[in-house]
Write a structure and sequence with these properties.
Keywords: ATP-binding, Nucleotide-binding. By secondary structure, the protein is an alpha/beta fold. 34% of the residues lie in helices and 29% in strands. It starts with a strand and ends with a strand.
């Protein structure tokens, strides 16, 4: 994904300004920023889902080509139909109409296994808890098997174990050569699992780079208004918010 001078206005007010961003294979990029910074707008504009100025390599594609290039997990998690979880996950295969049925079944099975949904595969998706529904929707995106996964707050509402599962899964996808761009509010998990962080502030990129260079005291004070402790432990980089700056 390649964004050049991407901008979005609403009611004459700029929401995003001159965003330049490239996500390559093997990267797990965490998109950070306070509420209202423009994270969801950036993801949707990058995918061509809302009008924007500038250029996005995905937005210029046709729908079918874009679906094969990038899978999208939106922030909203409404499931309207009481279809079995397995059928919900299989919807991700719509992006590959010419694939063999065996390939479709294998992709669905891999996604179900990755999100620990084996015991839920025959349950109506509408009867799942909110966290279980989130895992099912992530599995649907994985079944799409696109080289780029774009996820808007994918771990919101998940219990701590499920959050770690999902972040490990995304890191593994990147390690296998895929690309992942996910908006995240948990800076601790972002610091630990992401290979790169992009911090938004008032519609612009305030910082972009490895977690150690983005989660600095100056950036955290300017963008989030907090102090925090950052250290490296046995599990990797550890981040702990400490206080609000008066």
């Amino acid at each position: 994904m390649d964004l050049q001078d991407l901008g979005v206005c609403r009611n004459g007010r700029p929401v995003l300004e001159r965003i330049g961003l490239r996500i390559g294979a093997g990267e797990f990029v965490g998109l950070l920023g306070p509420n209202g910074a423009g994270k969801t707008t950036l993801l949707r504009a990058a995918l061509g889902l809302l009008p924007a100025e500038g250029r996005s390599s995905l937005a210029v594609m046709g729908n079918a080509e874009r679906a094969r290039a990038a899978a999208f997990m939106p922030q909203g998690r409404e499931i309207a139909w009481p279809m079995p979880v397995e059928s919900l996950v299989a919807l991700g295969r719509i992006a590959h109409p010419g694939a063999a049925r065996a390939a479709d079944r294998a992709a669905v099975q891999r996604a179900i296994t990755a999100l620990h949904l084996e015991d839920l595969r025959h349950r109506p998706a509408t009867e799942l808890s909110g966290g279980e529904q989130a895992r099912a929707l992530i599995a649907r995106a994985l079944a799409q098997e696109s080289p780029l996964l774009v996820a808007d707050e994918p771990i919101a509402g998940l219990d701590p174990a499920a959050q770690i599962w999902v972040m490990r899964l995304f890191a593994r996808l990147a390690g296998q050569g895929g690309g992942v761009l996910a908006s995240l509010h948990d800076l601790g998990l972002a610091a630990r699992f992401c290979t790169r962080l992009v911090m938004l502030h008032q519609g612009r990129i305030a910082a972009d780079g490895p977690p150690e260079t983005v989660l600095t005291a100056a950036n955290l004070a300017r963008v989030f208004g907090i102090t925090a402790h950052l250290a490296r432990g046995p599990q990797g980089l550890l981040f702990q918010p400490l206080d609000i700056i008066p």
